[in-house]
Design brief:
- The protein is globular.
- It contains 12 helices and 3 strands; from the N terminus they run αααααααβββααααα.
- With 325 residues, it is mainly α.
- It has a 3-stranded mixed sheet with strand order 1-3-2.
- A hairpin with a 6-residue loop joins strand 2 and strand 3.
- It has a domain of 175 residues.
């Protein structure tokens, strides 16, 4: 039988190459903008050069974002390969011992091997591309962030649609309903009122938007993202925007968030003129306080649900195989 051998170290190396490539492409876009600014204004107007350069810069930003997404996907895939066997062993150890029959020992071993392979395949097949954390994963979730995410994840453990296999069976309307349940759980864990989740036709490259200035506020999820079978990216986006709702809640309500200094950084960042739009300064947008915090939160939540979902799928798969032994 043909075997596919995957070396996690090679995936990590490829991840870094994609990250560097994304930076290089973004730098090309920045150079084009600098060149344009140095040209004579009248020449630019007569030639219509602004439009062409802006279009090229927009495409460069989109390519850079995709390269970073691929980088994160490869990094997390390598990490998941390393974790898959340990997770499989731990889950199998929790199954009732009565499942193992001496007369069918070889079948049991075969089933365990198949289930173990199933874990690895399930982990790898979970799409983990999203607008997410630094490739190196050097950031550390705070105790409060962990508590909020784990509380929400625990509340969602029996909700249908939050494994990759279940998600692929849902139509667009059912996916919105599932995401609303996710937002309800996130809001409850954050100590705020949930907002409505709805589908929208957003600008290219925009997966979600928190409409905090609306009354009542709501979260838009891009219809193109919703149409894909990318559960991880969709959950990352929703949790990211949900974190923005929490940031505003913390700004408007004293003592909600224990880190007053962080709340003040959010307040300053959201003030008029301080928020950095991605099309104006992609690197500045990526690193500003409210986006960096929301990105980490979105990543952490989606990863928790992904691991929870893999465990659920493994137990179900193992149970089905055990019943036939």
């Amino acid at each position: 039988m043909t075997r596919i051998i995957v070396t996690p170290e090679d995936l990590q190396d490829l991840s870094m190459r994609f990250a560097h490539a994304g930076d290089d492409v973004q730098e090309i876009g920045d150079r084009l903008r600098r060149i344009l600014r140095n040209l004579d204004w009248e020449a630019r107007q007569r030639s219509g050069l602004d439009g062409f350069v802006n279009q090229a810069c927009h495409r460069a930003t989109a390519v850079a974002v995709e390269a970073q997404d691929l980088s994160r996907y490869l990094s997390l895939t390598a990490e998941n390969f390393l974790q898959a066997d340990n997770q499989g062993v731990q889950l199998i150890a929790t199954l009732p011992k009565t499942v193992i029959s001496p007369e069918r020992s070889m079948s049991i071993v075969g089933g365990v091997v198949i289930a173990g392979i199933g874990v690895a395949v399930a982990v790898i097949m979970i799409p983990v591309i999203g607008l997410i954390s630094n490739v190196s994963r050097k950031w550390t979730a705070t105790d409060l962030m962990k508590a909020q995410v784990e509380t929400a994840a625990d509340a969602l453990k029996d909700v249908k649609g939050l494994t990759q296999a279940e998600w692929e069976k849902l139509d667009s309307e059912a996916r919105i309903k599932t995401l609303q349940k996710v937002e309800d759980a996130l809001a409850a864990a954050q100590g705020r009122s949930p907002v409505k989740i709805q589908k929208a036709n957003l600008d290219p490259g925009t997966n979600g938007v928190y409409r905090g200035s609306e009354t009542p506020p709501f979260i838009d999820i891009d219809e193109d993202l919703l149409a894909k079978n990318d559960l991880h990216a969709t959950l990352t986006t929703l949790a990211h925007e949900s974190r923005h709702a929490y940031q505003h809640h913390a700004i408007e309500n004293a003592n909600v968030h224990p880190d007053a200094e962080q709340v003040e950084s959010w307040r300053t960042n959201f003030d008029d003129g301080n928020y950095i739009e991605p099309e104006k300064n992609p690197k500045g947008y990526w690193n500003q306080p409210v986006e960096r915090d929301a990105r980490h939160y979105g990543d952490y939540f989606a990863d928790q649900i992904a691991r929870q979902g893999v465990g659920k799928e493994l137990v179900e798969e193992f149970g089905e195989k055990a019943s036939g032994w």
